[in-house]
Amino acid sequence: MRIFVVGAGQVGTTIVQALHEEHDVTVFDLDQTRLSPLSYRYDVTTVEANGASRRVLADAGLVRADLLIACTSRDEVNLVAAMIAKGIAPRATTVVRTTNPEYLEVWREGQLDVDFVVSSEEETAHAVTRIIGVPAARQTDVFAEGQVQLVEFDVEDASNTATVGVPLREARLPADSRVVSIIRGDEMQLPRGDAVIRAGDRIVVIGSPQAAQEWSQLISPGARKVQDVVVFGAGRAGTAIARMLVEQGIGVRLIEADEDRARRVARDFQGARVYHATGLDPDFLDRERIGDTQVAIFAMRDDMKNHYAATLAKVHGVNFTVAIVHDTPAMEVFERAGIDVAINPRQVTAEEIVRFAHDPRTEQVSMLDGDRYEVLDITTRPGGEYVGLTFKDMPMRGALIGAIVRDGRAVFPRSDDVLRAGDRAIIFTESSRVGEVERAL
Amino acid sequence: MTGPVGGRRIGRARTLAVDVRGAANVVATLLLYLSPAALVPAAVALWYGESPWPFVAATATAAGVGFGAERLTRGEHRIGPREGFLIVAGTWLLAAAFGALPYLLSGEPQLSRPLDAYFEAMSGFTTTGASVLVDIEALSRPLLFWRQFTQWLGGMGIIVLALAVLPRLRVGGRQLLDMELAGPGAEDLSSRIRDTARRLWLLYVGLTAVVFLTLLALGLSGADDEMSLFDALAHALSTAPTGGFSPRQGSIGEFAPVTQWVVAVFLVVGAMNFALLYRALVRRHPGALGRDEEFRLYLFLLGLASAVIVLELFRADLFGAEESIRHGVFQAVSIMTASGFVSTDYEAWPVLATMALVGLMFVGGSAGSTSGSVKVIRHLLLGKILRRELDQTVHPELVQPIRLNGTVVEERTLRAVTSFVLLYIGFFIVGASLLAVDASVNGPELDVLHAVAAAAAALGNVGPAFGVAGPTGSYAPFSDFSTLVLVALMWLGRLELIPVVVLATRHYWRSL
Fold first, then answer.
1. Residues B161, B95: Cα–Cα separation, whole Å
2. Residue from the list A256, A263, A288 with its beta carbon closest to the beta carbon of B395
3. Across the interface, which of A256, A266, A288 has its CB nearest the CB of B401?
4. What is the mean pLDDT of residues A37-45?
5. Residue in chain A lying closest to B408 (CA)
6. Omega of the bond prior to A174 within 30 degrees of 0, cis?
7. Of A63, A377, B420, B460, whose CB is crowded by the most CB atoms within 10 A?
8. pLDDT confidence band for A274 (50 / 70 / 90)
9. Cβ contact (<8 Å) for A266 and B403?
């Protein structure tokens, strides 16, 4: 596929990382300092020019492009780039990144001539709500219209002897689920029946939503359905998260330091209680019993403020903290500091965008641990390498099928079930082997 | 040192910041426009074979004064929001004076004193329904008609009428409309103020016509033998504006039960927000009614008060079952909508029923209606303000906009509501005290309830109160001073205090 990426910021870079091996990528940016690391590390073409210019795009050969991804930080530039692309290459798919939910709305109503619009805020909010749905999980995602759930857990507690320290085939694990990966330090293994989960491992499970809940109970007993969430920061991301939570019937308190914005949000958004406070004042946290909340989400603009506020909230007794982290390297800092989940809006946006570059048979992609692993939802074709084999005979080449969707229904395969052509496989793999997997199926 | 260019000097300090001449010009114009109103009772007089001259003379006088004053005050005017207050307050004072002319000119002995005639006219235009007449039926038919007609004119508002039908006033009409229409939140029905005023009046005329035809049908069908053509017209003119005047000594009580029910229903309609009514009826969104918070509270309070009074009447065993329900509901409706029709003498009702009636004098109907008093919407918003205050005592950082029907109400409006209610209570207390003190010096004999109820009834534009001014009584025994106090209360109450009270502040008149 020939892919044009306009914008080499954090989103653009993540996209290039994910796509450069399989595809022919051209990146546009006005800033050479952003382009040179890309051209140095990856085999991509870089163009130091305005990607929203018709001449620039045409000169770069847009006519032959299959996909144009406009992912600068400026919505209007992205829209203009996509519209120009539609004019030059009507067959190319256009994907636009936006931070303004209104554009998303306009696009959904069919008023924007763009194939796909991806909103960072919306994707972030989705990521947050998925996490909160499965309280013990680091990361979750749903496939096949919610019939299949992907969950990533950190196994901390060694005392759970039903799961930890016993070979998987003997462990009492929730039905309709499969451990597709055990990550220990830097090593990843695709577990067979004799594999053992140890304390400190990170595991990836694919199963039914019911099984995901059971796993959550198993990993972190006592976690309950979330009813009470505090969101720090009522910017676009914070508000989008709060809205989505309220839509799910969860009680939300929003804390905003800027008085005008607090008023505006309180006016426009009826479902949540809005407080005008910094969230850094211990008296306030104490008075409002913030420590008793089930989940605190930190969506302020400043990573450092989020970090401090989250730590303070932990001190006040908040059990589960989720932080929106804008700077990619800071992710690790947050996780080291004991923040339960760190979400990078640019990364979730990039993930969402990358799925447009996959084999057309791929319905969905989910990235784990940065972009090291991926879970694909891909339809098997007749004559595929694995088609007709039983699951126990399937060769393990850096991939493992966690579930299949057959005739629209999710099936969690046993070892002697057979993979048929036309099945949709929910398959875990390393990112570097995605192409291989797509060919094998 | 150089002097000012062109020999200019610093001018004389101008301390008066209100264009009084300009305001007087507009008031004079409005009076001129209002003057033909007295020709309607003149026609009635001709119909009944009586002398039309008092009415014609009233029209001529008002037109002459209006025309002359308008000529005298012509010139360059700066008419803005400031002058609006003066215009509204002045127009209503002059309108009442105009209304008093036919009473004085007709030589009716009960209204021969100018202050009494002025009281009767003010009570009419403000749709209060309080009367200094002892023997109502002694008045001639045209005079009785004029009493009813003043209520009808004042109901939707004199200025709203002017905005609707007359050539362009040289003033921004929106503010005047806001000042004259009852309560906050009487929304616009059109982007053009004139269209809004027209629609309101059209609806008002329509409502009056429906009341008239219904009452006439009751009379013609024999359901109510008492209801004549004149009675149907007279009561339609005072029911639509929730006025309360009746050409009968016994008010609505003289008519059949079915008439009393019909009037009660139309009073409930008349005290609804006309903008809401317009959307429900004309634009066919009846769902708007059910969703409107004020309307729901209005009905709830009406139901609650009726239930309390009816139960009390049952307990006291004053009437039979049907009468208890009818009088209980009718009196609750009549007092709450600030009408003042009387179906029976409620003077001797048990204490809780009496208290409920006095309490209802402070409730009123909906915003944008023809009713009086505080208005349900202010009670609703005040309740919300109080609840927020309580919430914020515990959660000082909580940002909590107050919503009405889902839309955020501006803090300015909320402050205005609070100040209105405080001012209202203040004027009520001062008024009641003045009445009580004056009565102890000049008579008549008033106990606390009577003084309180009379002040509340005048300020709330309700009409009848208790004691001397009760359902079968009259305001005639009050001294001149008390009469003046009551006139002032009616005027203040109809214009909803602020446009009048603001005239009493120093900073209204001066620029520094």
1. 13
2. A288
3. A266
4. 90
5. A267
6. no
7. B460
8. very high
9. no
- Is A258 an interface residue toward B (CB < 8 Å)? no
Nearest alpha carbon to residue B93 among B508, B392, B503: B503
Residues B125 and B123: their CA atoms lie apart, in Å, by 6
Strands A187-189 and A177-184: antiparallel
For the segment B308-343, what is each residue's pLDDT rounded down to a tens digit?
999 999 998 888 889 999 999 999 999 999 988 999
Chain B positions touching A274 (Cβ under 8 A) are 398-400
Summarised one tens digit per residue, pLDDT across range A62-114 is 888 889 999 998 999 999 999 999 888 888 889 999 888 888 888 888 888 88
Q: What is the mean pLDDT of residues A400-408?
A: 86
Q: Which residues of chain B lie closer than 8 angstroms to A275, CB-CB?
A: 395, 397-399
- Residue A159: per-residue pLDDT: 67
Cβ(B461)–Cβ(B372) below 8 Å: yes
In three-state secondary structure terms, B53 is helix
- Classify the complex by whether its ipTM is higher than 0.85, answering yes or no: no
- Residue of A141, A138, A206, A122 lying closest to A367 (CA atoms): A141
Tokens 């101008």 belong to which residue? B14
CB contact under 8 A, B408 and A262: no
DSSP-derived pairing of the beta strands A24-29 and A2-6: parallel
Residue B242 DSSP class: T
Whether residue A241 is predicted with pLDDT greater than 60 in this model: the reply is: yes
Contact (CB<8Å) A267/B401:
yes
Q: Do B400 and A275 touch (CB under 8 A)?
A: no
A267 CB neighbours in chain B (<8 A) are 401, 408
Measured distance CA(A412)–CA(A417) in Å, rounded: 9
Phi, psi of B337 (to 5 degrees): -80, 10
Buried b (16+ CB within 10 A) or exposed e, B450-487: bbbbbbbbbbbbbbbbbbbbbbebbbbbbeebbbbbbb
| Residues of A whose CB is below 8 A from B398 | 273-276
In one letter, which amino acid is A241? Answer: I
Which residues does chain A have within 8 Å of residue B400's beta carbon, measured at their own beta carbons?
Answer: 266, 273-274
The CA-to-CA distance between both ends of chain A, in Å, stands at 19
B185 min Cα distance to partner chain A (Å)? 18
Least reliable range by pLDDT among A278-282, A382-386, A420-424, B150-154: A382-386
Which residues, including other chains, have CB under 8 Å from residue A200's CB and lie 6 or more apart?
A: A155, A156, A184
Give which of B399, B402, B410 to mutate to test A binding, by max A Cβ within 10 Å.
B399
- Taking CA atoms, B219 is separated from B225, B252, B255, B322, B327, in Å, by 6, 14, 10, 22, 21
Rounded-to-integer distance, Cα A141 and Cα A372, Å: 16
Q: Are A52 and A77 in contact (CB under 8 A)?
A: yes
Give chain A's mean pLDDT: 86
Q: Residue B409 above 80 pLDDT?
A: yes
B391 to chain A: nearest residue by CA?
A273
The CA–CA distances, whole Å, from A311 to A230, A315, A333 equal 14, 6, 12
- Rounded CA separation B125/B155 (Å): 7
3-class secondary-structure state, position A254: strand
Q: Do B400 and A277 touch (CB under 8 A)?
A: no
Residues of chain B with C-beta less than 8 angstroms from the C-beta of A288: 395, 397
- C-alpha to C-alpha distance for A375 and A146, rounded to whole angstroms: 15
Closest CA of chain B from A276, distance in Å: 5
pLDDT at B166: 59
In tens, the pLDDT along B254-268 reads 999 999 999 999 999
pLDDT for residue B66 is more than 90: yes
Residue A434: what pLDDT?
A: 79
Task: Number of A to B CB contacts under 8 A, please give it.
Answer: 30
Q: Which helix (H) or strand (E) holds B334?
A: helix B321-336
